[in-house]
Predict the 3D structure of the following.
Amino acid sequence: MRALLLAAHGSRREASNQEVRAFAVELAGRLKGSFDRVECAFLELASPAIDEAVERLYAEGVTEVLVYPYFLAAGRHVASDIPEIIGELERRLPSLEITLAPYLGADPELPDLVARGLRGE
Amino acid sequence: MRALLLAAHGSRREASNQEVRAFAVELAGRLKGSFDRVECAFLELASPAIDEAVERLYAEGVTEVLVYPYFLAAGRHVASDIPEIIGELERRLPSLEITLAPYLGADPELPDLVARGLRGE
């Protein structure tokens, strides 16, 4: 069983966290067939934490997790914090296959999307 | 003269800030004809600050600035901090027209882009 975990920053503003959860629901609809489960988790300030979410997915029978950093640039969260959490999870759950996807900001289509939005297309 | 200002969070990791600057350069190439200037600025931890960047653009003859929050969710930075900075700039520079664009995370095309990336398309 394969899961996608959207790993977001988390906010003190709960509406922002709800937005991320709604985004994960939108993605789930688009990724049927590719992932059995699509969920989100947060690095800070919101629940669930990334490690909690992965452990729960594992307990529910997930065998592969793709962690997708929902971040625009590779600051310390993307470059260090998320890889460290994954490394720790790999030690704790050796039979779970965890893969780290490139973060959103690395998507080569992003400049075109932003430019289209700004031109009002 | 019309400018786009990409307003990003800023990082302690300078490579992350450089990534945002490179993104602004990519956007500039795509938005010729829509904006005379495309620059980026940061809320925290990196230079220039948003107010510094707007004041410099104004000093250089820009009459309209569109501020685009390069953020994925409307946390406090998007909901409060950036609008407050813009409000203050409007008081200081009454002859400059400053408009706040919707933030990136509100772009309705974003879920499709992320889903395509995750399906490897």
In short: Chain B touches chain A through 44 residues (CB under 8 Å). Chain B has a mean pLDDT of 96. The CA atoms of residues 75 and 81 of chain B lie 9 Å apart. The beta strands of chain B are 2-8, 37-42, 64-69, 97-100.
